[in-house]
Amino acid sequence: MWNQRYSSDEFVYGTEPNSFLAQHAELLTGPVLSLAEGEGRNAVCLASLGLDVLGVDGSAVGLAKAQQLAASRNLTIRTEVVDLATYIPPEDTFGSVVSIWAHLPSMVRQRLHGLVERSLKPGGMILLEAYSKAQLTRNTGGPKDVDMLVSAIEIEQAFPNYDIILSQEIERDVSEGKFHTGLASVVQFIARKPA
């Protein structure tokens, strides 16, 4: 599905970063692991701030466009094609992990979040934005499977020992290409791993 979605010449979610990520990027330290990176807009934004970024995604087509976007801006990002259902990030490696619209079945998500916790260095940051369960009734983006949508409580429970900086469910306008446009119900979460 994702290789097909990314196969057009256009960047289907645009080339500008997710606005929640851009607003809080100064909190992040490298190296950064960006989950479900897609066509590279978020990784390229972080690289423009001088951060070392590894973008992982299941779509080789998307990540090829990510490298193209980085090159067009004279930036360097690292990319790796992975299946997030089986991906094991290296332990104690990342200063930050970014998860923007990384919608996965709940069993896969729970497994991955446990591995993300191990992959972060002490003091490392997790920054996440995802569609909430209330998004199911909207046609402005996100999966149409409630199991792939999240609540703030679920995300907080995934990182129980973290110092929470922000955890909220809100409605906001999203304008990210043709598939994420309009009023949306989202979860926003930022937390720090204890040092």
Automatic annotation (TrEMBL):
Transmembrane spans: none
Pfam families given in the database record: Methyltransf_25
Keyword terms of this UniProt record: Methyltransferase, Transferase
Domain of life of the source: Bacteria
Residue ranges occupied by any Methyltransferase domain in the UniProt entry: 32-124
Biological process per Gene Ontology, one example term: methylation
Transmembrane found in the keyword field: no
PANTHER family, A to Z: PUTATIVE (AFU_ORTHOLOGUE AFUA_2G14390)-RELATED, TRANS-ACONITATE 2-METHYLTRANSFERASE-RELATED
Protein name: Class I SAM-dependent methyltransferase
Highest classification ranks of the organism: Bacteria, Bacillati, Cyanobacteriota, Cyanophyceae, Leptolyngbyales
